[in-house]
Write a structure and sequence with these properties.
By secondary structure, the protein is of the alpha/beta class. The protein folds into two domains: 168 residues, Glycogen Phosphorylase B (Rossmann fold, 3-Layer(aba) Sandwich), CATH 3.40.50.2000; 160 residues, Glycogen Phosphorylase B (Rossmann fold), CATH 3.40.50. 41% of the residues lie in helices and 16% in strands. A six-stranded parallel β-sheet has the order 2-1-3-4-5-6. Strand 1, helix 1 and strand 2 form a beta-alpha-beta unit.
């Protein structure tokens, strides 16, 4: 069990099912271990929510003006508290409307903070020009159900999961090969979660469409599938993501085909999933898995074993150690913030 550290005021700016892994699960785990954590949802009112001498973790803030954000930071500082901004994606991957706001404020919420909390080392490196101090807290997977190889015994129907958000370009590359597979394999069921922009023609029952789901229901749907497709185009912004989709699939004994970005090292030379160089190759690899239940069982068992090191308890211990260290050096972090922005020494406006 993690030794409790500083009290935490968590300001959740963008609540939703997508925050289960990044926000809800880890901070509820800290609370269960005895940490003093208060979780606040919109509307965010820092003056009412920030306690004295607390670690303030502000998730995905999007301030309208630099001045208002600077005043919020100064209020946190005046309380003897420390501001940590939770930011888990590359700014270039946000919708254009959000990117316009980021440009207009010059990403003040990332610059004007004691430190950032990010999900992987590459994202920390990408954000270093904005803030030199980042805590890397990678995503954990929970729950991890028992290994289920039994689902890979049956051959029909073969359920293939496609549930990646904001992957329009990748899905367009998959479309021709997926269309051919649907036509040639009546036993194939394509299970889509969220709006996938895939104009596919199929037999009745071959495409199962679901809206954006609550996290538990998403995991249940993933568990009902044999294979999961995780396309991700190459590029620095995409490389700043985490392999959480692979972790979740492996937890549910579902075999992944992924690539070309990010997943290669995690798949361990096709031992823990299959890597693909492009969309057609990804579908071809999935078809190879579909025809080989023994290979699916072998990969599913190895991947399920590998992710045991990425459970919520292990991550909570690391997270707790980081927060305790951050609190010990809070004075030095505040001085470095003032060195970067001397105007903060005048206090709130």
């Amino acid at each position: 069990m993690s030794t409790p550290g500083p009290r935490i005021d968590l300001l959740v700016n963008a609540p939703g099912s997508w925050n289960t892994v990044r926000v809800a699960q880890p901070f509820e785990a800290l609370k269960a271990q005895g940490w003093d954590v208060r979780i606040h949802h919109p509307p965010i009112q820092p003056l009412a929510m920030v306690r004295a001498s607390s670690l303030v973790i502000w998730q995905r803030p999007l301030p309208e003006q630099t001045a208002s954000w600077a005043n919020a930071l100064q209020w946190v500082r005046s309380r003897g508290s420390l501001l940590l901004v939770e930011w888990d994606d590359h700014p270039d991957l946000f919708p254009e409307r959000t990117r316009q706001k980021l440009r207009r404020t010059h990403c003040c919420h990332l610059r004007l903070a004691h430190a950032l909390q990010v999900s992987c080392p590459k994202l920390a490196q990408a954000l270093t020009p904005l803030n030199p101090h980042s805590l890397v807290v990678e995503n954990a997977v929970a729950p991890i159900p028992p290994l289920n190889l039994g689902k890979h015994q049956a051959r029909e129907p073969l359920r293939v999961f496609l549930g990646n958000l904001n992957r329009t370009q990748e899905h367009q590359q998959l479309q021709p090969a997926l269309q051919a597979w649907l036509q040639e394999a009546p036993e194939l069921q394509l299970v889509c979660a969220g709006h996938q922009d895939l104009p596919l023609q199929a037999r009745p029952g071959q495409i199962e469409q679901h809206p954006l789901l609550a996290y538990r229901r998403y995991r249940q749907l993933l568990a009902s599938c044999h294979i999961a497709l995780l396309p991700l185009q190459e590029g620095i912004p995409q490389a700043c993501k985490t392999p959480i989709k692979w972790l979740e699939a492996a937890a549910e004994s579902t075999v992944v085909v992924a690539g070309p970005e990010l997943y290669g090292p995690w798949l361990a030379n096709d031992r823990l999933g299959l890597w693909a160089a492009d969309g057609p190759d990804l579908v071809a690899a999935a078809r190879r898995l579909a025809a080989n239940p023994d290979l699916r069982r072998t990969i599913a068992a190895a991947a399920h074993q590998a992710i045991q090191a990425h459970g919520l308890m292990q991550q909570s211990q690391w997270r707790g150690a980081l927060y305790r260290h951050l609190w010990r050096v809070r004075g030095a972090l505040d001085q470095r913030l003032l060195q970067r922005f001397p105007s903060l020494q005048t206090g709130p406006q």
